[in-house]
Amino acid sequence: MQPTATPPAADALARVLDRLSALAIGIAAASLAGLVVVQGWQVFARYVLNDSPSWTEPVTLLLLSTAMAMGAATGVRENRHFGFFLLADALGPRGHRLVEALGGLVVAAIGAVLAGWSAALLADGWDVHLAGAPLPQSINYLPLSLGGALMAAFALDRLRRRPASAGGAR
């Protein structure tokens, strides 16, 4: 059986998703760097200036949520997430393909649920102001919603790109 060429539209989709993954990891890295700066300022202001700012805790939670959600989505794209590979390998090629497909569907479903409910919670609390920072109370759901959508898209793309005869390759 001859391998079939990947359609140009599929290649374009893969390139777009690769760029989204790179953007997500860049956002996660910037969030972690921002987290260091905000917490550094918190410590300096509290112990040197004796004037602890109220905005640092909500901003820290937002940055941490952003780093986690974007990093998790990229982990799905790069297949560097937690998994039970010993079980899949012990099942043989057919069982491995089945478990891999089922795992991809579960990740896609979890990402979709995370995106949908996070978006609903984001919209629900958008008009309520956060104590300590000039942000909406539900702002922490924004990165969770985006990360969930990316997880679902990346998991579905992994399933699409997986060859039907892919045995035990990871």
UniProtKB/TrEMBL annotation:
GO terms for molecular function: transmembrane transporter activity. GO terms for biological process: C4-dicarboxylate transport. Pfam families: DctQ. Residues 36-161 form the Tripartite ATP-independent periplasmic transporters DctQ component domain. Its main location: membrane. It is found in: Cell inner membrane. Keywords: Cell inner membrane, Cell membrane, Membrane, Transmembrane, Transmembrane helix, Transport. GO terms for cellular component: plasma membrane. The chain crosses the membrane at residues 20-39, 59-77, 98-119, 139-156. InterPro entries: DctQ, TRAP_DctQ. It is a multi-pass membrane protein. Belongs to the TRAP transporter small permease family. Part of the tripartite ATP-independent periplasmic (TRAP) transport system. The complex comprises the extracytoplasmic solute receptor protein and the two transmembrane proteins. This is TRAP transporter small permease protein. The lineage of its organism: Bacteria, Pseudomonadati, Pseudomonadota, Gammaproteobacteria, Lysobacterales.
